[in-house]
Design a protein that fits this description.
By secondary structure, the protein is of the alpha+beta class. It is built from one helix and nine strands. It is about 15% helix and about 35% strand. The mean pLDDT is about 80.
């Protein structure tokens, strides 16, 4: 059995040796024997790249760089302050899925983050909102059939406290 293994190993080694010999034996010839002038070799000048390659994308958490002022919070607190001048009964909705259609709003009320009644025209509430929710719409519905009031609200990066006020 040992002889079969040796034969098997020797066959690939022999093929490799023969291939190397054949490659070196087929080296470049002189050609037709005439006076051949050497072909000029083109010179290639490397120009420096004006824009260095951008840094590679992080591949692990160890590669991430976070600004010192980033609190790494996934949410923020939004204070809602509603103070209607009248004592009309109303209902407040705060939603994130809406579109503006020529001055009118189409709100998906299944997307509301908060709903609640006004108490004597007032509502005071603090909500924890996910960071990706930066555009919201507040709607006050009145029980007596008046037109609802809408207010578009946007997260203000410069403000330390986020407040939505409706009067």
């Amino acid at each position: 059995m040992k002889t079969e293994i040796e034969k098997f190993i020797n066959v690939p080694c022999g093929l490799i040796a023969f291939s190397l010999f054949a490659l070196t034996a087929c080296g470049g010839g002189g050609g037709d024997g005439g006076d051949a002038s050497p072909t000029p070799v083109p010179t290639i000048t490397a120009t420096p790249d004006p824009d260095p390659e951008p840094a590679a994308d992080p591949t692990s958490l160890d590669d991430l760089v976070v600004d010192a002022d980033n609190a790494l919070q996934s949410s923020y607190m939004l204070r809602i302050a509603v103070d209607m001048s009248s004592q009309r009964r109303g209902y407040f909705s705060l939603c994130d899925d809406y579109t503006t259609l020529g001055g009118a709003y189409a709100v998906n009320f299944d997307s509301c983050l908060f709903r609640g009644p006004l108490n004597e025209g007032k509502l005071s509430k603090e909500l924890k909102i996910a960071n990706h929710e930066s555009q919201l719409i507040a709607v006050i519905w009145f029980y007596e059939g008046q037109t609802p009031q809408y207010l578009e609200w946007s997260y203000m990066t410069d403000n330390e406290e986020q407040i939505l006020t409706m009067n």
